[in-house]
From TrEMBL, chains A, B:
The modification 4-aspartylphosphate is found at residue 59. It comes from the Bacteria. This is Response regulator. GO terms for biological process: phosphorelay signal transduction system. The keyword Ligase does not apply. Keywords: Phosphoprotein. PROSITE patterns: RESPONSE_REGULATORY. Residues 4-132 form the Response regulatory domain. It holds the Pfam family Response_reg. InterPro entries: EvgA-like, Sig_transdc_resp-reg_receiver. SMART domains: REC.
Length: 221, 221
DNA sequence: AAAACCTTTACGGATTCCCGTAAATAATAG
DNA sequence: CTATTATTTACGGGAATCCGTAAAGGTTTT
């Protein structure tokens, strides 16, 4: 059963809506914060006073402003929170539709649910909270499709490094040196060329510029 | 004075928060829709029954779903709405931070204000509505900086065409043919090369990939 | 209409990239 | 330890690009 909830969401509007949705579910013990660091502090404090939260609802991306923060995003917050309180349920509420991100939340960070800011998000939130309170997980259908679609190509750490370097203006022939400095293997020029070719073939692209544009669109870089 | 408001926002949560913010300002005559087409229909209907809206608050991007829509985004909605009711005030509420987009809203579409979904967006919304009701406009400070920054280089129709072609995988040497087909002048390969060089020099870039990445980030292509 | 100026295009050498093949190295199996 | 396989790297010829210079085509001034 979910009684005590913490909301970590920097958008005031979204934060308000989350509170309202929870109240409509009969959950009244709600704290809300606008920064990740505040969220972690609240979790620590409530744990020490034996009033642990049952659920954390968090956004993924938090805007930077004057206040310098240790934790800058939802993913890091989830990890830090679980270190403090491993049994904490986590529901992510974000606008992101990146398959890679959502897959990480599901598989690696072991979040209990994901609701995307979109049409009917309020209804879906209630549904998700309901399911989580019954020890179920909530990752919507369309994500499975997205993940499949994305898996037309798995962008490895290597791929992303190479494309990022290109997008930063690094000459192709200079990429091996940069890769070595970052300790990424392989680092040979031929490996870079081969991998770029593979990616371009996969997507039926002809030029690196296309690859950069695609990765920008997909939020991969 | 603003009495009657229409909200066009597909995210249920954001829509709810907008309603709440308006109510806190003492505005009670609120309609809300989740689709652009519905918004336009409401505007037409209310105008014909002499109960025109004073203000339209709209998002920019609307999610596609099963319902096929004629108007697919906030920009088109603004244009269509102004055709029906030229004196309609428009406040845009979106997560976009692209300078190009916001500049278009200000200069071309002549929106009355822009509030970004971010920290303190609820407060800013109220401020914006207050200003608009006093016949002022509300475009936040940081946008001016963004626009300035962007205007380090004026991207011409020619520039955008060339960079777009690159991002689509067109070989540089094939670009002249495409430009001619689109009736864009100049179209010589040397002109393309020269212009690319100028742009790269302006931004201190070394490669086309960098230019593509930048234009993607800025929403130029 | 000639001169001066600016824009666009043409050309060519140096560099970089593309791409196929082959060698070298690492990993796995027998 | 050797054989087999897979991965990584090296090499080289051809294509595309970068970049500087010069010619061609327009426009404005006098």
């Amino acid at each position: 059963m979910i009684k005590k909830v913490l909301i970590a969401e920097d958008q005031e509007c979204a934060n308000m809506s989350l509170q309202k949705a929870l109240e409509e579910l009969g959950i009244t013990d709600i704290d809300y914060v606008y920064y990740c660091d505040d969220a972690l502090a609240s979790i620590q404090r409530s744990k020490h006073s034996n009033e642990s939260y049952d659920l954390l609802i968090t956004d993924l991306s938090f805007e930077e402003d004057g206040r310098l923060q240790k934790i800058t995003g939802g993913k890091e917050l989830i990890q830090a929170a679980r270190q403090v309180q491993p049994d904490l349920r986590v529901l992510v509420f974000s606008a992101s539709r990146e398959a890679a991100t959502i897959e990480t939340l599901d598989k690696t960070l072991d979040a209990d649910g994901y609701v995307r800011k979109a049409r009917n998000d309020a209804k879906e939130l209630k549904e998700a909270i309901d399911k989580i309170s019954k020890n179920q997980r909530h990752f919507p259908r369309y994500i499975i499709d997205l993940v499949k679609q994305k898996n037309a190509h798995d962008f490895t750490r290597f791929d992303i490094a190479v494309i990022s370097l290109l997008a930063q203006g690094t000459l192709q022939k200079d990429i091996p040196a940069h890769l070595q400095k970052s300790g990424i293997k392989p680092s040979g020029l031929s490996s870079v060329e081969k991998r770029l070719n593979l990616m371009k073939e996969t997507f039926d692209f002809s030029k690196n510029e296309q690859l950069v544009a695609y990765c920008k669109d997909m939020g991969i870089i």
